[in-house]
UniProtKB/TrEMBL annotation:
InterPro entries: Aldlse_KDPG_KHG, Aldolase_TIM, KDPG/KHG_AS_1
Annotated Pfam families: Aldolase (PF01081)
Superkingdom: Bacteria
Lineage of producing organism: Bacteria, Bacillati, Actinomycetota, Actinomycetes, Pseudonocardiales
GO molecular function list: 2-dehydro-3-deoxy-phosphogluconate aldolase activity
Species of the source: Pseudonocardia alni (Amycolata alni)
Entry keywords, A to Z: Carbohydrate metabolism, Lyase
Keyword Lyase appears in the UniProt entry: yes
Pathway: Carbohydrate acid metabolism; 2-dehydro-3-deoxy-D-gluconate degradation; D-glyceraldehyde 3-phosphate and pyruvate from 2-dehydro-3-deoxy-D-gluconate: step 2/2
EC number(s) from the headed UniProt entry: 4.1.2.14
Entry coiled-coil feature ranges: none
UniProt-recorded name of the protein: 2-dehydro-3-deoxy-phosphogluconate aldolase
Oligomer status and interactors: Homotrimer.
C-alpha cells in the first residue's frame, strides 16, 4: 500500500459485516465522520457483496478488503471493486498475488524477519498484527532504529484510548480499529452513533 493512502486518515475502520444491506449506510456514516478509508474483512459471506455496494454507491469511500489470505481472496477482492488489500500475514505466494493485482496492499507482519522479508521486495508500508499481542507500542518503537524506512498500520486490540500512543510514533502512519463499528450499533442501524465514533477518531490526527 502506498504511504499516501495510509495518510488519508489517522484511523482505518476494520469492519465485519454480516448483512450487506448495512454496508452503504455504514460507509456513509464513516465517511461523513471523516474516515474515508474502510477495510471490510473477508470473515463473513456478506463481505464481498458489501464491498461491491460500497464501491458502487459511496464514491467518497476508499474501500478495501482485509483478512486476505489466498490468491483466490485477492482475485475476488479485485472483482468486487476493492481499491486495496490487507493481509494478516505475508507468505511469498500471497505477496506474489497481491503484487500482481495492481492494487495497493498492506502486508501483515509481526516480527523483524517478516518486516525485512517484505522490505526486501520493495514494500515500505506494512500492517503490524496482532499489534497488542505482538508487543504493541514498545515493539514498534524498537523497530524504528534498525528499520527506519518502514511505516506501519498497527491493528489488533487497539482502542480509542491506546490509539494516540501509537499515532505518536514516527513510524506509524495510521492505526486500524474495530471499535468504530460496534456489532450492536451495526445490527441496530445506529449510524449516527457510528458517525460520532468516526468523528472522534478522525480528530486523533
Amino acid at each position: 500500500m502506498s504511504e499516501k493512502l495510509l495518510e488519508l486518515a489517522p484511523v482505518v475502520p476494520v469492519v465485519v459485516l454480516h448483512d450487506a444491506a448495512t454496508a452503504v449506510p455504514l460507509a456513509r456514516a464513516l465517511v461523513d465522520g471523516g474516515l474515508p478509508v474502510i477495510e471490510v474483512t473477508l470473515r463473513t459471506p456478506a463481505a464481498l457483496e458489501a464491498v461491491r455496494r460500497i464501491a458502487a454507491e459511496v464514491p467518497d469511500a476508499v474501500v478495501g478488503t482485509g483478512t486476505v489470505r489466498t490468491p483466490d481472496d485477492v482475485r475476488a477482492s479485485v472483482d468486487a471493486g476493492a481499491r486495496f488489500l490487507v493481509s494478516p500475514g505475508a507468505t511469498p505466494r500471497l505477496l506474489d498475488a497481491m503484487e500482481d493485482s495492481g492494487l495497493d496492499f498492506l502486508p501483515g507482519t509481526a516480527t523483524i524477519s517478516e518486516m525485512m522479508a517484505v522490505a526486501e521486495r520493495g514494500h515500505t508500508a506494512c500492517k503490524f498484527f496482532p499489534a497488542e499481542a505482538a508487543g504493541g507500542r514498545p515493539f514498534l518503537q524498537s523497530v524504528a532504529g534498525p528499520l527506519p524506512d518502514l511505516r506501519f498500520c498497527p491493528t489488533g486490540g487497539i482502542t480509542v484510548d491506546s490509539a494516540p500512543g501509537y499515532l505518536a510514533l514516527p513510524n506509524v502512519s495510521c492505526v486500524g480499529g474495530s471499535w468504530l463499528t460496534p456489532a450492536d450499533a451495526v445490527a441496530a442501524g445506529e449510524f449516527d452513533r457510528i458517525r460520532g465514533l468516526a468523528a472522534a477518531a478522525a480528530a486523533l490526527g
